[in-house]
From TrEMBL:
Record's keyword annotation contains Transmembrane: yes
Record-linked InterPro entries: Glyco_trans_2-like, Glycosyltransf_2, Nucleotide-diphossugar_trans
Entry protein name: Glycosyltransferase involved in cell wall bisynthesis
PANTHER family, per the entry: GLYCOSYLTRANSFERASE, GLYCOSYLTRANSFERASE 2-LIKE DOMAIN-CONTAINING PROTEIN
Keywords, sorted A to Z: Membrane, Transferase, Transmembrane, Transmembrane helix
Domain Glycosyltransferase 2-like stretches: 8-126
Gene3D superfamilies linked to this entry: Spore Coat Polysaccharide Biosynthesis Protein SpsA, Chain A
TM helices/strands, residue ranges: 294-314
One GO molecular-function entry: transferase activity
Source organism, top-level taxon: Bacteria
């Protein structure tokens, strides 16, 4: 597929000069050639800027920008800014250390147009080095190409994907941004949960179309977090996503997010740390769950913080 509607590939980057060339070469090698690639540098301190200026001069389809100083630092700000600069009919976010297979765009655009979908989701394989030493997939689940992807399955993590896998129509993405309050893992989870709740129609494409690089400073590397940090991070993502969907989701899904938040907050308190948005959360638990559950949650956190007890109170919130 040599011609077609313009695809905007949007890449945030920070200190990835040693990986960027391979990533951008894989984009140049696409069989679908009607694309622009917008790269937003989050004020890198390596050779990223010089490298991108050279690439931009050689191929004008690459467009290089730096994150404006008035925007919050982080990949989500860069993605939102890149989207505002893009012109494509289709949008494909991508990471600056991953690799597209040559048919990536061709297969995704073709499937989306054939079935008149709002979005499609390909598949990825993890790799460690340039020789493509594969180590599984980012997500393992039963991918059914014929079923429409739904928000509840995604939110409750029965299905999932990385940002690279998604290609969507621009008109379905105009009214949603990446949450800049989320700085690490969970940004795409939050974004796509909110996106799916808008009712857009999409399906899986069961082809490995990306190679997802695993290395020491990958944000999703579990070795970067101890248990307390993990609990705090998960509670933050659950709570922020709850806030983002409380006006669009069914009650059952809102309660599901609040339960996840409360459980991980209890674990945080058991390590003598104040849970994320503890006081604010009590209001929402009372409003969207029940006043009794809010009291039980408050008591469980106090007991956990003081003497690492109180799980019996937390169990009450499941009733």
């Amino acid at each position: 597929m040599m011609k077609g509607k313009l695809v905007s590939i949007i890449i945030p980057t920070y200190n990835r000069g040693h990986f960027l060339v391979e990533t951008l070469n894989s984009i140049q090698d696409q069989t679908y050639q009607n694309w622009e690639c917008i790269i937003i540098d989050d004020h890198s301190e390596d050779n990223t800027q010089d490298l991108l200026m050279d690439i931009e001069e050689q191929d004008p389809r690459f467009r290089f920008f730096r994150r404006p100083n008035n925007l919050v630092k982080g990949a989500n700000s860069c993605r939102n800014y890149g989207f505002s600069l893009s012109k494509g009919y289709y949008i494909n976010w991508f990471d600056s250390d991953d690799i597209m297979v040559p048919e990536h765009l061709e297969l995704l655009v073709g499937r989306l147009e054939e079935e008149n979908l709002d979005f499609v989701v390909g598949d990825s394989a993890n790799f460690i080095n340039l020789e493509k030493s594969f180590s599984g997939k980012p997500y393992q689940f039963n991918r059914c190409e014929d079923e429409i992807i739904n928000a509840t399955d995604f939110a409750q993590q029965r299905i999932g994907w990385i940002t690279d896998d998604f290609l969507g129509r621009r008109n379905s993405l105009n009214n949603i941004n990446f949450n800049t309050n989320i700085q690490t893992d969970g940004d795409e989870y939050n974004f796509f949960t909110r996106y799916l709740l808008e009712g857009y129609k999409g399906k899986f494409v069961n082809e490995i179309l990306n190679y997802h690089r695993i290395h020491g400073d990958t944000l999703s590397n579990p070795k970067l977090y101890n248990s307390i940090q993990t609990y705090f991070k998960v509670s933050q993502i659950k709570y922020l996503t709850f806030l983002d969907i409380k006006n669009t989701a069914e009650k059952e899904l809102k309660i599901w997010f609040l339960r996840g938040y409360m459980l991980n907050s209890f674990r945080v308190a058991g390590n003598r740390k104040i849970p994320y948005k503890f006081i604010d959360s009590i209001f929402h638990i009372s409003k969207y769950y029940s006043f009794k559950n809010a009291l039980a949650y408050f008591g469980s956190i106090v007991c956990a913080f003081i003497c690492n007890r109180g799980y019996f109170l937390l169990k009450y919130t499941r009733n």
